[in-house]
Amino acid sequence: MTRGVNADDLPTLRDELEAHGLWANKGLGQHFLLDLNITRRIARTAGDLDGKRVLEVGPGPGGLTRALLEAGAEVVAVEKDARFLPLLEPLIAWSDGRLTIVNDDALMVDEAALLKGERAAVISNLPYNVGTPLLVKWLKAGAWRGDMTLMFQKEVAQRIVAKPGGDAYGRLAVLTQARCDARLEFIVPARAFTPPPKISSAIVRLTDRADAYAHLDALERVTAAAFGQRRKMLRSALKSLTPEAETLLAQAELAPTARAEEIDQAGFRRLAEAWRSNAA
Ligand code: SAM
Description:
The chain is α/β, with parallel strands linked by helices. It has helices at about 15-20, 35-45, 65-70, 85-90, 90-95, 110-115, 130-140, 155-160, 170-180, 215-230, 235, 245-250, 265-280; strands at about 30-35, 55, 75-80, 100-105, 120-125, 145-155, 180-190, 195, 200-210. It has two domains: about 5-210, Vaccinia Virus protein VP39 (Rossmann fold, 3-Layer(aba) Sandwich), CATH 3.40.50.150; about 215-280, Helicase, Ruva Protein, domain 3 (Orthogonal Bundle).
């Protein structure tokens, strides 16, 4: 605990939800973590947050927000559902002004403007329905984005960290690992949430790679084609991208008979570069 605030001193989240007559809205992917032991563990997984800027999407009733503020972070929290504002607003004074609440859709916000150009870690228990588009948005983000500690459904987390050779390996792994080293940190069982979702979740930690690949748009194009027909050999699968699929593969030094799930990060980078040089 830093900066003298202890989340144990606050009314419990369960009491707060009851007092305000709030319930989860399934359409907004709302499953709440009301146990501070878990939200504190997520905050610890993100490293030393004292004095650090954090972007949190979907604070909901504020369980993770409390843990982040307790750890000393300066939090910008973007929440689409205005019903939670009365639960979040008291945390501003409690944290001595270290919380900024933005009532907006995280898919639409300009994070660089919200953060006034400052770099921020991204730490969120993401809504299931928009977790993947938000991740792709942040992978493409500019200098404002620091390391990310994010909660996804377990299957999505496994797809993010997957290595070549298995069914979990696909576009999400290639795009994420083009920018970040990805590690699955721990599983959070469904029963830890209120209301419990159908499946477990997992925390993924994404740290920027020194050799991050710049052209994510090109990588999106080639992985869409390659994994769009993942059981086919690349010489067939890539026909949706170009009639010259075999030439492209030769340029990228990839076997035309290989399948997408056998191609590693370096191979996909070569393929994206070959596609860019032909598209130019
Ligand atoms: N962080 C809270 C927790 O751990 O208990 C709530 C997590 S809940 C899985 C997801 C939260 O994201 C909800 O509060 C929901 O209203 C919010 N949300 C859903 N879609 C959103 C969007 N497009 N932009 C911002 N927040 C969104």
